Amino acid sequence: MAGPASIAASQAPVPGGRGGIRPTRIEVDLGAVIENARAVKALAATRLYAVVKADAYGHGAPQVARALDASGACDGLCVSLVEEGAQLRDAGVRGPILVMGPSQAHGEDEMIARGLTPVVSDPDDVARIAAAAAARGASVSVHVKIDTGMHRLGIAPSDAARVASDARARGLTVAGLMTHFANADIDDPADLGCMTYAQLASFAQVDAVVRAPIRHAANSSGAMMFPSARLDLVRTGIAIYGNGRWPADARLNAPRRQAMRLVTDVAQLRRVPRGGTVGYGALWRADRDTIVAVLPLGYADGLPRRATSHARVLIRGKRCPLVGAISMDIAIADVTDVPEAQVADEVVLLGEQGSDTITTAEYGAWSGLTEYEVTCGMSKRVPRVHVGGAGG
Known about the structure:
Elements: E1 5-6, E2 25-29, H1 30-44, E3 47-51, H2 53-58, H3 61-71, E4 76-79, H4 82-90, E5 97-99, H5 108-114, E6 117-120, H6 123-136, E7 141-145, H7 160-169, E8 173-178, H8 195-210, E9 214-218, H9 220-225, E10 233-236, E11 260-265, E12 268-272, E13 277-278, E14 284-285, E15 290-295, E16 312-315, E17 318-321, E18 331-334, E19 346-353, E20 356-358, H10 360-365, H11 371-376, E21 384-387
Parallel strand pairs: 2-21, 3-4, 3-10, 4-5, 5-6, 6-7, 7-8, 8-9, 9-10
Antiparallel strand pairs: 1-12, 2-11, 11-19, 12-15, 13-14, 15-18, 16-17, 16-19, 19-20
Helix pairs in contact: 1-3, 4-5, 5-6
């Protein structure tokens, strides 16, 4: 063979196909999200607020929030931005929504108008929220966030009693007291001297003075790994999407299902002669006569270029290496060892196919990304297809 050649017989149109529309898509299993939320809530044995900020970690916030709201799998939702909460109200979500990030650009009025619950993370927040509440003649509940060592957002423990007293004096109800862990995803629960336990101890000292009805500290790792952190409510994000740190003890290991699949179809099959190269930079050279599959997605879709030479895909239930540089719109898989591969075969880059699963952690490891970065980093040009649940 003189060079790469397409396998022409495989290029016939597929009956019932998508009419030329690129098949690359992200499939989100809302049923898995609901099951995971219920499993976390059962394990934590307390109230659960599902974290759906950042477009539900890339899974689609309106659909995920509606599914959770309709199923009763959680007791409320958490977002970071005022506009994220407003989006959920516009989507028909009526349950409690906690806005955890700082209010910016006079967002207090929008929170009150939308029935969102503000978090006080700076002493100056109190006056702004109280003024907005007074202007609307509204009764407003807030949660006060305490900085127990992360030094990012929150009231200093020494100022907590004063800030809570100021909020109450201005007519606000201090409905919740909260903090956030820095190290729960890596701390060993058996190490009583770890940072997570130190933060809990600091929080307990503030709680003894402020006395809010609802106390919460645990993110996903805190909820799953540190029973003493569960308190009156847990705020779980990554766990409800089937990722993150779960207990290893089989007696406690609640079942979980990864909610996201990144899927495409084989666009073309091509022959590459021994010694031929593929892609930019000629980074890969065939050591045998090779059949490769052209996949219509690349780093513009959320498959990082840094995964070049590391990534694998599932085709017909078999693992196939990606070869050559991952480009903006195209990736290439070596399917020589899958002789039955055909154009339009489903290709799974993230998630389950047959008896195998490419996990979010594995996908991230190919390019040095965390699980959070993997799902949040999926491009918006890739359509989300939601299945199961009641997200609509």
